[in-house]
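I trust your eye. Have a critical look at both lines of this record:
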Amino acid sequence: MRILFMGTPDFAASVLDRISEYPDDTIVGVLTQPDKPRGRGYELAQSAVKKLALEKNIPVYQPETLRDNAFLPELNALDPELIIVAAYGKILPLYVLDYPKYGCINVHGSLLPKYRGAAPIQRSIIDGETVTGITIMKMAKGLDTGDMMLKRTVEITENDNFETLHDKMALCARDAVSEAIKLIREGKDVYEAQDDSLATYAEKITKDDCFIDFDTDAKSVHNRIRGLSPIPLAYSYLDSKMIKFTSSVIVSTDGENAPESIGKITAAVGDLITVACRKGSIGITGVLPEGKKRMSAADFIRGQQDLAGKKLTAK
């Protein structure tokens, strides 16, 4: 088949890498987001998908928009029979969805209809889920609402963070897309409609999502920290300076703490900064202090005086 691939981050690059291994299929092109300025020097950076496509000599397209038939001339020239999408970052208009003979399939990072939307991996960890997975679906007008072809599950362990779960799901996605292509090629692809009544949405992560409110239970705090690590990182304020949290452990889940104790550092010993939550306590094991590099809690403790008794606050 003539395949057009659309994707942008590492997750999508892993899927593209697997698809490019098939000698019977031709990847006629790759669509990815335009290069964006990053880092202190604001130098233009290529997406992971673009880097891989260039290494494999696959033509790369980076349209600013797909609206108003903007990509139709290129689409006609490429003439794909199947479009595969994985974390592309743009909504596909109908002229794109309707073009290929075998349709457009999306590799989505959740067990649909749960966690439709932009941040399913992070949200599943933040919400304390123990299982997630990959869904291959036929794309339709709407946000992740199309009929499903297949699902594969992935376990979320209590110490998975965004990075570790992302990597497990990328491996799962590679295998799932392989199976999907085989089913389509053999004419054995069967689709199941989503139950919209069970749908939940994984909205894009914002700065507000990253603030840690210790006025909740320790498990919820731990889930938020690991769901946002290694990027963009959960944060709070210590002595009016932002401090981000790279890793944590649950110290205890029992016991309601007094309102005046919530957010208070109850101990800073060895490699653990213990903080009281509304219920239980969380242990911070890694931090990124404002203006400094990432470091272990042990290194941070050595550079501080009298941490115990201080409070982590909203500002």
User: Anything to note?
Assistant: The mean pLDDT is 95. The two ends are 56 Å apart (CA to CA).
